[in-house]
Amino acid sequence: MMRKLFIVSTLLFWIAVAGFWAADVWLPEPMGEGTSATAAGKHYTLAELAGHDQADDCWMAIDGVVYDFSAYLPQHPAAPAVMLAWCGKEASQAFHTKTKGRPHSNYASQLLPQYRLGLLRGE
Questions:
Q1: CA gyration radius, the chain
Q2: Maximum Cα–Cα distance for the chain, whole Å?
Q3: Which DSSP helix (H) or strand (E) runs through 67?
Q4: CA gap 20, 15 in Å, rounded
Q5: Separation of alpha carbons 1 and 69, rounded Å
Q6: Do residues 69 and 83 touch, judged by C-beta distance below 8 A?
């Protein structure tokens, strides 16, 4: 009985170790201070952001970071009009609530870095 308990607990230990290793390798770095997503880069004003409010030139600011979603807009799972309404604007609340009080998925957050342009400059 003790031998089986030892084998099972050892096996569970190594499965947990493998899980932590896999999570470290496959999960993206969280966005935050010190990551490449918020590292120094080009800064944009709200006025500059407002000039990119078309479907083929769609920039948004989310949590102080400016993104160019022009290439992503046709791929958005909802109708493009949902996202187009926020082009050229600060869209943090819209992103976090989907204007319905529901957050986007983690997958949506993982897509953000590839569309990053720079930081929104406070005015």
A1: 20
A2: 72
A3: strand 65-68
A4: 9
A5: 59
A6: yes
Q: How far apart are CA 66 and CA 90, in angstroms?
A: 9
In 3D, which of 59, 40, 42, 41 has the Cα closest to residue 50? 59
- Name beta bridge partners: 63: none
In single-letter form, the type of residue at position 47 comes to: A
DSSP 8-state secondary structure symbol assigned to residue 31: S
How confident is residue 27, by pLDDT bands cut at 50, 70 and 90?
Answer: confident
Which residue type is seen at 94?
A: A
Which residue has 């992103």 as its token pair?
95
Our CA dihedral for 60, 64, 67, 72, rounded to 10 degrees, sits at: -70
Per residue in 39-77, pLDDT (tens digit) is 458 999 999 999 999 999 999 999 999 999 999 998 888
